[in-house]
Every structure is written in structure tokens, then in C-alpha cells.
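Lesson 9: reading folded outputs for more than one chain in a single document. The general rule is that every protein is listed as its sequence immediately followed by its C-alpha cells, and records are never interleaved. Here is the first one.
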Amino acid sequence: MFTAESLGIVALILMGLFIGLFIFGVYANKKRLAATFEAAQKESARLMEEARKESDRIVRNAIREAKEENQNRRKRLDQEHRQKQTDIQKIEQKLKAREGALEKKLLHIEKKEKEIEKIEENLESEEAKYRGLMKQAEQTINETRHVLEATANMSSDEAKKHLLKIMEEKAREEIKEKLTNIEEEMKKEAEIKAQSIVSLAAQRVASEYVNDSTISVVSLPSEDMKGRIIGREGRNIRAIEQATGVDLIIDDTPEAVIISCFNPIRREIAKIALEKLIADGRIHPARIEETVQRVTEDFDVTIREAGEQAALDLGITDLAPDLIFQLGKLRFKVTGGHSVLQHSVETARICSIMAAELGMPQRKAKRAGLLHDIGKAVEHDVEGHHADIGANLCEKIGEDPQIVKAIRAHHSEETAELDSLSVILHAANYLSEQRPGARKDALESYIKRLDDMESLVKQNDKIDQVFVMQSGKEIRAIVTSTNARDDDIIHLANDVASRLRKEMSFPGQIRVSVTRDNKFMDFAK
């Protein structure tokens, strides 16, 4: 049996043993935890090193790929730049060739002007000869009168009448023949010169004729936007001009940029594209090319919609798609401040009204009026008068031959040889162009031009009354029988026409009519 003391000693021993084992366990676990923590730190360091190496590898790959992409883009830009430089050189060569052709034509015109001056000098010498002949005739008449009075049984008055009749008939024949020859020569020379001047003006109009119809103004939100449009070293403005074919004028005008171009379609595309770029705020060459291309594609839809709307307003629903597209382009063509599409629609309505009054087919007349100026929409590389170009286009598409004929002749002066539809189209076109407000002309300058014409004609003492008619296209002068003879009428008309040519400038031609007025009065008592 164990005693209480032995049990207490055993208990103390067991307790000490347990405490020792516990202390030993704690110490052993602490060493194991320290080893585990040290291994974890080493593993963490290893992972951090591997992550750093992987990130360095990724960065190096990204830098290498970025450099390769940059080099590829630079190569593409260099190729595009060289291509554009080549295109610019070709355009410059074409311009130089055209300048050479213009210089040749100018020399030809100067030569023709000298020839005309020489002809005028010959006319003056012929006139001097004619006056000398008249003096000789008067002297001969006086001498012959004395001889006849002495040798014949005729009275002085009878001899005078006889001689005057002989000399008058002879002088009439000579003058008539000379005037006919001179008039034919002058007409030929004038026709050649007119053709040269018109062709020269048509080729030079793009660079010399600048007014409100060749510029557009784009508003800017601030003055800082001008610098962004210009870009670094002007690369943005060059990109815009090359992509659109216009000239950008950035001057001191506050918060505005001016777009200049003779082609209204290119000018409108450039305006819309620039407004989109300003609203977007991202202005750089790549964005510029993308925006211009997108606007150009959308602009074709706008043009087609304008042509469809014009045809729909007139009730014409069977036009060919090509004709509708060309009609839409006329919306952006301007003549005298008047839209060509608006003028065509107006002409079509006038044709319809006139055809209805004359009992003719209204739809055909309306169709001819709408298409009569379609040739103005065709690009400049097609040569010829716009009436012939439009007629050829309509004929190719399959329009009615009578409409094609009317379009071809709507500017013809020989109206007596035209058919009824052509006459209606000719008259409607003239009415649309000459009605009040159709042309952009100030009223004061218009009235002053008519007054100047009237004053110039009245300077001739033999003319009693002057009437300027048809908006200055015709002048009618009246002389009395006491101021001039019938023989003087031709000279008066030539004198008035010559003064108008020398002292005034006017479009087209002016018809001069001189009438000799005889008045007879008697009284019945």
C-alpha cells in the first residue's frame, strides 16, 4: 500500500515530468516554426525574383514590339509621303504645261488684236477715202452743172437732180459692197477672237474668279483652335488641304477659318469635315484622313438625296440614277448667286406652265426644263458647251430624242429653226435667268449701267430719242428726217455700236437699232 506521502511524491514527480515534457514540446515546436518561417521567406524571395524577371521580360518584349510597330508605321508614312510628293510633282508639271498653253493662247489673242486694230485703221482710211470721193463728187457736180446749163436745154434744178441720181446710185453700190465685205471680215475676226477669249476664260476661271461663291467660313469655339488646326510645323493644315483639295486661310479674322476652292463640292466636304474635327477635338493627320473619307462617302448620299428631292417636287419619278446624281451636284453649282438646281426646277415649272397654255405635253416640257443644265454638273475634263454635254449625257442614258434636241438648242440664237419644245425651253430658261432677283446684281449698279448706256448714245447730235430695252440687251435710237438722211442710218448704227464696245463693258451682245422718223402734217379747213 502506498502511503499518502509516497503518493504525493509520485504526483509531484509526474507533475514535474509533465511540465518538463511540456517545456520540451514548446521548445521543439518553436524550432520547427522558425525553420518553416525561414523556408517560407526563402520561397517568397524566390517567387519575387521570378516575378521581377518575368516582368522585365514582358517589358522588353513590349518595348521591342512597340519599336517594330513604330518602324513599320514610319515606313508606311514615308511611302505615303513619297507617293504624295510624286503626285504633287505630276500636278506641278501639268500646271506648268497648262501655263505654257495659256501663254501661247495669250500671244495668239494679242496677234488677233493687232490684226483687228489694223483692220480698224483700214476702215478709217476707207472712210477718209469715201469722204474724199464725196468732196470730189460735189466738185464734179458743180462743174457738170455749169456745163449742162451751157450745153443742154435742162434747167439747173433738173441737171442737179439728174447728176445727184447718177452719183447717188454709184455711191450706194460702192458703199454697199465695201460695207458688206468689211462686215463679213469683222464677223469672222470677232468670232475667232470670241472663241479664244471664252476658252481662255474657262481655263483660267478657277484661279482668277474669286467671290462669295468660292469661299466658306467655319466658326471656331476659340482662338486656340487655330493652333490645333495648323498643328506642329503645319502638318495638320497640310493634311487637310491634301485630303480635301482646298486652301485653308487662317488669318486675323477672330474665331473663324476661311475655306477657299473653286469646286463647291470639295469646299462643302472640307467644311463639314473640319466642323466634325473641331467638335471631336482629336485633330491629327490620321484622324483627318479618316474623317474626310467618311464625309466624302456620306456626301454622295447627300447629293443623291438633293437630286431625288428636286425630281420628286416636280413629280418626275422615272429618272435614271446617274441623272439624279448629276442633278444633286447642281445644288452646289452657283451662277450669279443663283443655285443651278434651283434654276433648273424653276425653268421646269415655267416650261410646264407654257406647255399647258399651248396645249403641249406638260410632263415632257417639265422634264426638259429640269435636265436642260445637267451638263454643268459634269466634270471639267469633258470638253464642249454645257448644252452639248448635257444633251450627249441624256442621249446616252436613253432620254426622249425631242428632249435631247431641246437641251442641245436651249442657248441657240436661231430660234426660227427650232421645234416647239425647244422654243419653250429657250424662253423658259431666259425668263428664269432674267427675272428680278434671279441674278446677284445690285439695283443701283444696274440702273447706273442703263443710264450710262443712254447717255453714251445721246452724245450723237443726230439722235433725238434713245430707249434702252431688255435689261440693256437692246438699244433703240430714233432720228428725225431733218437731222439725218436714209444713207446716214447705217453709219449711225455702226457709230453707236463702236462707242459701246470702246467705252463700256457688258456681257453678251447689245442689239443697236436706229430708226429714221418721218412726220407729215397738214390741216383741213
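And here is the second record, again sequence then C-alpha cells.
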Amino acid sequence: MNNLVEIQNLSISFKNDGKIRKVIDNLSFEIPKGKVLGILGESGSGKSLTALTLMHLLPKNAIIEQGKVYFFDEENTIDWLSLTPREKETVRGEKVAMIFQEPMTSFNPTLKLGKQVTETIIENLKLSYEKAKEKTISLFEEVKLPNPEKIFNSYPHEVSGGQKQRVMIAMALASEPELLIADEPTTALDVTVQKSILDLLKQIQQQRNLTVIFISHDIGVLAEISDKLLVLYQGELIETGTVQQILKSPQHPYTKGLMSCRPTLEMERKKLPTVQDFLDNKTLSEKLIVSAVDKTKTVLEVKDLSVTYSLKRNLFGKTVKSFQAVKAVSFSVYKGETLGLVGESGCGKTTLGRTLIQLIKSGEGEILFNGQSVNSMGRNQENDFRKRVQLIFQDPYASLNPRMLIGEAILEVMQVHHIGKTKKERKEKVLTLLHQVGLDDSFFSRYPHELSGGQRQRIVIARALALEPEFIICDESVSALDVSVQSQILNLLNDLKQQLGLTYIFISHDLSVVKYMSDRIMVMESGKLVEINETKQIYLNPQQDYTKKLLAAIPRI
């Protein structure tokens, strides 16, 4: 038997408030032994639900309406869906293990990482603590963690995102499973860390002859690691084939849309197509986006800006240990410009953005907005500054009050800054803003949990626009979105910039997106500004080795 797993005619529905909604419809495919199967699709396509079925972790309101799942080990065939609860616990870990998308939420923050891995080994392999610790250290070495003994005795918050993901891989490998499921394991990681994780998984897969399911919405990532691809759309399998077959000759409009809507390093700066454009067979725009930068007008000027965090204070409140997150950074932003800001996690991008808007008070240096010093503003001047400069955060769900209607969340900021004379006038403006970001009046009376990720991001953009700003800082505003939703938000930001004459700083770890959006790009490393230049020059002729490393790590189709 060449297959490790076969799924036949699987259909799953969710039951909520007496209503039944089908989420996987008649799904059939095989997973070949010793190969990497990539599953491509957007949120809601059924990717993760398929993985949870194999892990026996379906939510309680899930109903398996029909279908069979067979697992073929060396001795016999296992009818996967008919196992008893005790048998399910046994095969989970021994036969199948999973690497989850967000490692921070997968670990217990109160336990050291080594203890969490050794507990898994003791439970599944019945080893003594000493043997389990020895195996854990060996696994940490296999996943190339620096200083394994130190990581063993560290808490989750004490290591980087990439290191946590490596510990998660070690934990998944601890029971020596036959099938490893990786569910979006690199989505939240920098391109360089993402590349190292992909290389690591491929190396381990080949060394152990593992069978792997790799789930992602990014076809560039899947192209790097997969042998075979499945494309899921609204719970249905719409296309399957080798990576080369699908990349060279995608058959379904949805697959073509997923491949085309993501910016690439080679593409010209024109309106991005969306998946819906391909599904509707629309004619794609060939019109280039014309830059409206006015280099005679400097909107923002930063001079020798440094930001230092106090890590430890003594009994008298004096700082005895500190960390300099931003180190003597200087740059200017012109009117109508989109200035891209890139770098790995911890390089100081977000700290710089929040300091510019004075959510973090700078320790040294000067920030000038339209020639006026931001550092020495009085309260009235600062309130006016906060109206004119807005920040769009990375996570729109965390930026909205879950108990507040969408309309009220936008009205609130208008009331605080005295925009509009009456409640009726403010509500009319809110409705206008909703239309401006592509939403209808009904969204006024909805709660954040009732919206998709892309819709929530549009709401956060509408709230930022409510104060009629001149300058917007976008801090990783599209990094958590599906590529199709991402293309819609990027198009929206470009349209609003043109319509309202906005100026942007666009912060991201995704260099393809930054290239698409930006007129100029600045690169930060360890708190320092190492390179700033026109976008084309950064990509065609990078001057710094660090910039070259970032560019080399971008997945290419």
C-alpha cells in the first residue's frame, strides 16, 4: 500500500441554534507515504477542519454525516472514524501529531518549555523523567534550537516566535508519529524565520521519511515544500495535482485567483486582481498606479530618534537594566508618499511606528510633523495631532470592543474629537465611511464577532478615517489575512490614498507586499535604519547584506 491515509466521501456539518450548515462536502483524497501533501485554500475552505478530523479534535457541534477515513500502518488497516475514545487518545500523538498555527497559544505560559515536552514523552512513550529529558534535549538539537539546555529551562514568553515554533515541532516529533500535520505554521513569522522553518521541516521529513500535511493559504509557501497540492473552496475539493501541474496550468478560476492576487516581486504596480474577479470572469485592470508624491513638501521629519525601554528598576525606581529598541533613526516622509518599513520581528518597526504617533514617548531625538515639533506639543496641540495622524493596528479584532456595535465604535472617536454637530450628522458620516470602505449600512448594527477578518479590517480603516487624518501608519495591517482578502485591503488603501490625498507609513515583514505598496522603502535591523531608497533600487540593487538576506527568503512561485 503506497498511501498512509485515504479519505473517502467525507461530509461534515455544524449544528448551531438548531440550524445545520455543511462545511465539508463529499471530500475524497489520498495521502502518499513519505510525501508532503499541501492543502491550499482560504479561511472557511475546510483546511483546518480536515486536519482536526484526522486528529479526532472536531468541535462538539460538528456532525460527520458520511464518509470513511482509513489509516494504513505496517500491520493492518485502521478505520479511523470508528475508534473508541480510549483508542483515539492512543493514536493521537503515536500515529498523528499536529503543529498548530500560533505556538504562543499552544503552550502553557506557566510551565517551562522543557517540562511541557517531557510530559508528552512520558505520557506517550512511558519513559522515566531522565530519559524523557535526554530525548527532549536531543529533539531540540534536531530542530536546531540554539543552546537547547537554556531553551529547556525557559518559559514560552522568554523565546522568540521562531524558537517557539521549533519547540512545537520538537513536541510534535516526540512520539515519533507517522503523519505530521502542519496547520499554517509559518503565517505569523518573518520571511527569514519562515524560510528556516520550511527548510527544517523539509529536512526532518526527508530524514525520517515522514508523511506530512502542510496547510496554508499562501501558494508560494506550499510551492517551497509540497510534492502534491489539493485546492479546497467552500468545503469542496476543486483541484488536485503535483505542485508543477497546478503552478504551470491551474484549471479552476479559484486557483488562478489565489495565484494572481498576491503581489510578487516581478509584477508592475497596478490594481491587484481578487479571487472574485476570476470567479466572475471579469476583465482585469491593466492600469498602472501613478505615484502622487510631492517631494517639495515634507510631512514628517525624524531626527536621531532613539527609544529605550526600562527592563529593571531598583528599590528607588532607578533603571538598572534597559533595552534600546530604536537607535538614532533619521528619515523624512513626503506628502502623498507611501514609505515602506521592513525588518524582522524585534527590529524596532512597531516601536518606531507607535513612537511617531506618541503612544510611546521618545527618549531622545526629534519628530517634526508639518514642521512642528511633536515632542513639545501642549495638550490641545497633541489632541489635534492625534486627529491628523492615525494608526491601523495589526489585529482588528483586538482593536475593537467586542461588546460595542460597529457603528458605536466609530461614533465614539468622533464624539471624543468633536467631529459633527449632532448625533444624526455623525451617524450619516459613519454610514458614508462604511460605504467608502466597501460595506453597507447593515454593518452599523453588527458586533465584531459577526464579521470576517477582512470586514473587521475595513471597519478599523473606517474608524481611522473618521477623524479625517492626513497621515496613516499601517502596522502589519494585512499580515493575518487570506491572500484574497489582503488584495482587497491593499486595493482599498491605494484607492483611499488617491481619493483623500493621504500619506502612509506601511509596516510589514512581507517584502512582496511592501514592494507593491511603497514609493520608497527603509530597512531596519536591531533598532537601526540600515538602508533607505526608492523601491526599485532596494529590490534591484540592495546595498546591505541584511537586505539581500530578506529578499532571498521570499517564497517564489
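What the second record shows: The chain has a mean pLDDT of 88.
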